[in-house]
Amino acid sequence: MEESIKVIISGGGTGGHIFPAVSIANAIKAQHPDARILFVGAEGRMEMQRVPAAGYDIIGLPVAGFDRKNLWKNVGVILKLIRSQIKARKVIKEFRPDVAVGVGGYASGPTLKVAGAMGIPTLIQEQNSYAGVTNKLLAKQARKICVAYEGMERFFDKDKIILTGNPVRQGLLNPAISREDAIRSFGLDPQKKTVLLVGGSLGARTLNNCVMQGLDKIKQSGVQFIWQTGKIYIDEARAAVARAGEMPMLYVSDFISDMATAYRAADLVISRAGAGSISELCLLAKPVILVPSPNVAEDHQTKNALALVNKNAALYVKDAEAGGRLLDTAIETVQQAGTLNELSTNIARLAFKDSANIIADEVYKLAVNYKKEHGR
Ligand SMILES: CC(=O)N[C@H]1[C@@H](OP(=O)(O)OP(=O)(O)OC[C@H]2O[C@@H](n3ccc(=O)[nH]c3=O)[C@H](O)[C@@H]2O)O[C@H](CO)[C@@H](O)[C@@H]1O
């Protein structure tokens, strides 16, 4: 008989952690409509809006990240961590989950640590080709570790690892809209080549500077751009565009909710090398120029990017060189049909097609075993 299970999913901070979490939740619900799912996030972070928007309940912990530069500031962080563990314990006692899933980011630390200590099976999902600190700490207790890159036995016990790929939002695949309509929906011209420029879920200063300094070049290029700036950069970006005068070939926004349409519109993408973005680009076979962020732990975006670049599946521009050549490379490449085709064929080979369902299966198995063992 079908068992109804209760699942806690925890983590967040950026889209790269939140969207895989939502995708896993959707897959669990699709397979087991009776399943009850509760998210645990970090107060004030992006998940507190995005998760309810996806239709799930979320509870926030007062957790914050360690300040690696000013160590003395971490006294407050440790107090918050203790308060978070106390709250996580209360949430777990009340909800009584059969399994806890961690997707990385601040909240998953206290939640999975407490869940594991209470004997609840835990599963972690590591999006990147280099394991994050939180996931490394949680790995010892975890029963299963779902990863997206080969070679992760450098960080984790190989018997626990399952190579699943990163789950992407279900709505991103097979969009019904045509390329032409997608381009029109951004107020652009379907006759022209279109470049989508995304700086990850929070935006990227380097990419934004390239556009702001290259507005004249864009005007004269014959190519059009969909430009996502990130929330904190949007005012500066709009002011620069206003100063540049009429720019019908440029659409600018802080955040694109409908990424399916944006990808559909794009002949070429310029992107940071966040793991979630890369998984989407693989599944949608999109030609891309990757500009890894140098500001992330252990430089993991460069490692994510090189996994593709070494297979001729993406072009690569270093952050430090972007100012000098990113726009020129994009404007040239988007007009070379042969290069675009080759990049598209090669990147598609790296796609993992069914990640969310495979992870949902593992979550279900852990939960059902736990219920059996505990007579629930
Ligand atoms: C600065 C930082 O810490 N970045 C990390 C963060 O990236 P970040 O949050 O940028 O994550 P990803 O590139 O993994 O994913 C971004 C997600 O946001 C979506 N999106 C983006 C822009 C937009 O306007 N609308 C939108 O919906 C994308 O479609 C994608 O689903 O988590 C990733 C996964 O652990 C890491 O690899 C990144 O290094």
From TrEMBL:
Annotated Glycosyltransferase family 28 N-terminal domain ranges read 7-146
- Give the primary localization class: membrane
Report keywords, A-Z: Cell cycle, Cell division, Cell inner membrane, Cell membrane, Cell shape, Cell wall biogenesis/degradation, Glycosyltransferase, Membrane, Peptidoglycan synthesis, Transferase
Which terms under GO biological process does the entry name?
carbohydrate metabolic process; cell division; cell wall organization; peptidoglycan biosynthetic process; regulation of cell shape
Cell inner membrane: is it a keyword of this entry? yes
Enzyme class, UniProt record, top EC level: transferase
What EC number(s) does its UniProt record assign?
2.4.1.227
Single annotated GO MF: UDP-N-acetyl-D-glucosamine:N-acetylmuramoyl-L-alanyl-D-glutamyl-meso-2,6-diaminopimelyl-D-alanyl-D-alanine-diphosphoundecaprenol 4-beta-N-acetylglucosaminlytransferase activity
Task: Give the residues the record marks as binding UDP-N-acetyl-alpha-D-glucosamine.
Answer: T14, G15, G16, N128, R169, S201, I256, Q301
This enzyme catalyses: di-trans,octa-cis-undecaprenyl diphospho-N-acetyl-alpha-D-muramoyl-L-alanyl-D-glutamyl-meso-2,6-diaminopimeloyl-D-alanyl-D-alanine + UDP-N-acetyl-alpha-D-glucosamine = di-trans,octa-cis-undecaprenyl diphospho-[N-acetyl-alpha-D-glucosaminyl-(1->4)]-N-acetyl-alpha-D-muramoyl-L-alanyl-D-glutamyl-meso-2,6-diaminopimeloyl-D-alanyl-D-alanine + UDP + H(+)
The annotated topology with respect to the bilayer is: Peripheral membrane protein
State where the protein is found.
Cell inner membrane
Q: In which pathway does it act?
A: Cell wall biogenesis; peptidoglycan biosynthesis
Tell me which residues make up the Glycosyl transferase family 28 C-terminal domain. 194-356
- InterPro entries annotated for this entry? GlcNAc_MurG, Glyco_trans_28_C, GlycoTrans_28_N
Q: What's this protein's family per the entry?
A: Belongs to the glycosyltransferase 28 family. MurG subfamily.
Biological function: Cell wall formation. Catalyzes the transfer of a GlcNAc subunit on undecaprenyl-pyrophosphoryl-MurNAc-pentapeptide (lipid intermediate I) to form undecaprenyl-pyrophosphoryl-MurNAc-(pentapeptide)GlcNAc (lipid intermediate II).
NCBIfam families the UniProt entry points to: murG
Write down what this protein is called: UDP-N-acetylglucosamine--N-acetylmuramyl-(pentapeptide) pyrophosphoryl-undecaprenol N-acetylglucosamine transferase
Species this chain originates from:
Phocaeicola salanitronis (strain DSM 18170 / JCM 13657 / CCUG 60908 / BL78)
Task: Supply the gene name.
Answer: murG
